[in-house]
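Hi all, posting the design record for the shared folder.

TITLE: backbone redesign
STEP: 1 of 1
STRUCTURE INPUT:
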């Protein structure tokens, strides 16, 4: 991973088994990992965000990266792109975290757990202060920037994101989960039952694509709402118990 953006070439790391990364968060999963997780009887949240070409120029690396891990959907009179994040619920803690602090599915743990603390997005710098790992984790271990196995996992994760993108949106549409947040403003979190989401994931065709179902955006920021209204994007304004809106702090 030498030369990779956002990686300090002198940054070391070694997991000390504190379990902090196993608590109080959603853990992103690939589609295949989500099926495995659900089969264990553990819940998976569906986090949705949408965007259009107003966020970045269409010829920019940022747009290419985000477009690659999303799929086009109908948003009013135009087209939006929706990114689906299937995420294991580790709130208050991961169901696989044992009392001794070890992982009961360590050999089959999700890819993002294998990659941690590295960032998967090429546009986010690794910041030890933003992680929950104790200081001693960063004072020992191997150099992250020269870990080729880790670099391969990051690339594999990005490729799987691209491969799964359209199928995940199709899964959402099959369940009627068509309300999303706006990238950078907030996430809409749907929490279907284990049985419902598992059935939808398993029945989705490998080459499934989004349909022509209309999508809505949940947003609370006045300037953003004005922009979306000007673009005739349908807004999800009615109170709903079907999802949670999580505003992203600025």
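Okay, here is what came back for every position:
SEQUENCE:
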């Amino acid at each position: 991973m030498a030369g990779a953006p956002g990686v300090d070439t002198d940054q070391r790391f070694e997991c000390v088994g504190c379990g902090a990364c196993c608590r109080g968060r959603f853990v992103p999963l690939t589609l295949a990992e989500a099926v495995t997780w659900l089969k264990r009887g553990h819940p998976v949240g569906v986090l949705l965000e949408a965007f259009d070409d107003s966020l970045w120029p269409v010829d920019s690396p940022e747009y290419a990266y985000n477009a690659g891990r999303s799929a086009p959907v109908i948003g009013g009179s135009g087209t939006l792109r929706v990114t689906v994040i299937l995420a294991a619920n580790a709130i208050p803690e991961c169901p696989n975290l044992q009392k001794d602090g070890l992982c009961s599915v360590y050999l089959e743990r999700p890819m993002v757990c294998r990659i941690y603390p590295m960032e998967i997005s090429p546009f986010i710098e690794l910041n030890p202060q933003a992680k929950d790992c104790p200081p001693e984790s960063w004072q020992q271990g191997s150099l992250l920037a020269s870990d080729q196995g880790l670099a391969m996992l990051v690339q594999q994760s990005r490729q799987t994101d691209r491969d799964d993108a359209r199928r995940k949106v199709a899964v959402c549409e099959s369940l009627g989960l068509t309300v999303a947040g706006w990238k950078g403003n907030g996430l809409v979190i749907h929490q279907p039952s284990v049985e419902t989401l598992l059935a939808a994931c398993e029945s989705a065709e490998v080459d499934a694509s989004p349909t022509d179902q209309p999508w809505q955006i949940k947003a609370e920021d006045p300037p953003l709402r004005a922009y979306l209204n000007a673009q005739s994007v349908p807004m999800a304004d009615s109170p709903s118990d079907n999802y949670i809106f999580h505003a992203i702090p600025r």
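COMMENT: Residues 1-5 have pLDDT under 50 and may be disordered.
Let me know if anyone wants the other runs.
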